Amino acid sequence: MSQADRASDAFVRDPAVCAAYAADVSGLHEVPAVVARPNSRPEIIESLLRAAAEGLSVTPAGAQTSTTGASVAAPGGLLMSLAHLDRIIEIDPVGRRARVEPGVVLGDLNRALASEGLFFAPDPTSENEATIGGSVACNASGARTLRYGPTRNHVTALTVALADGSTLELRRPRMEKNTVGFIPAQDPVDWFVGSEGTLGLVLEVEVALRPLPPRIVGLGIPFPDEGAALDFVVGARTSPQLSARCLEYFDPIAFGFAREAHPGDAWRGETGTMVYLEEAGDDEADFDGWLQLAEQHGARDDRIIVFDDESALREARRIRHACPAAMHEATGPWLAQGGRRISTDWAVPFSEAQAALAESRRAAEEHGIEAPVVYGHLGNGHPHLNWVARDPSEASRIEACVESVLTGSVLPRGGTVAAEHGVGKLKTRWLPLQMSPLQLRLMHSIKRELDPDGRLSPGNVLSAT
Hints:
By secondary structure, the chain is of the alpha+beta class. The chain contains 16 helices and 18 strands.
């Protein structure tokens, strides 16, 4: 069978199949006109060429775990599932590099790396569902971003396909000094990391790896209230002796999710808030230092849970994942009425987070909506505020509240409208709040250069020109 025949077979228009690719975690829903499920790089290229010939837009997707609608196809367009390209091509333990296809699930990659004493540092909560291609597309991060930074910091090379079927082999410059050209043009790898499928399709990724720390300890520390917990976070960030690789916050409702997920009785009857932190390194954990700082901010040492082996750390991750899982479950009954989960992704400097959260709660009250459920990466000044919108009208009120917080609190504090999950389709309205017209024109010019017909992931990141 020729490549063209295989591409033809890969174009599926069956309504039932297309409906299976209509939604991601965001709650947006759009049945693609066509679904392509290539199994190899040549099939991707042939599918791109055929899509161009038929005038179809192309939206790439992996596991469709996007919370922003980035992996939902444009109306009348093609959804290109890259989930079948899931090979770990090479692991180089000496050079601490791995080459993988875009459909590799992050959790599978780290399980394969563990036998080599290595790991891939970015850790989205959905690591057992999210793919490396999606992580590159939205520059994903997670709890460990506090120490290791987002996906961008760990991508060393990319192979990408453009809308016209041509391919680019890109590798980061390795020189320590460089004064050639404008900064935006110096490293083309950065054009594609975080571009959310709008500039090209990721065919292969090379990532830098880190040695597994010989010692990792997690601490779950309850606090009497939000102020005490966030003061503790600031104290941890500014301490000259203590160093955490993550500092995660749980408000009272989120802490309730965590208590329900934890089978032990150490938190039974506990109220208030909680901070989960991890310390990793070569030396023994500084338990005394952490306990002293926690006690200074009202924590009770008899309620602190220690996660100090591989099994316990997996349990800690499961407890953390209980928060978004509970919000997804609460959203389910309202999807048929046009409801959806709304989760913010803004961030401010960590020292400003407590004030920004207080202003967010006041804004919710002023807009007549429920108080948000708050959890997330407060060590980076990056909370997730979560609501369940029961219908489109309530969703509009919540989004109006979020926008008021962005303009009145987040951006004036030097923050960002999207810190982790990308812009996708849901946040394009807020991009001009943060970026100047000049910056937006530059982004549009890059888009026109690489995708002159605007066929890749229309609606993601940039609104129509």
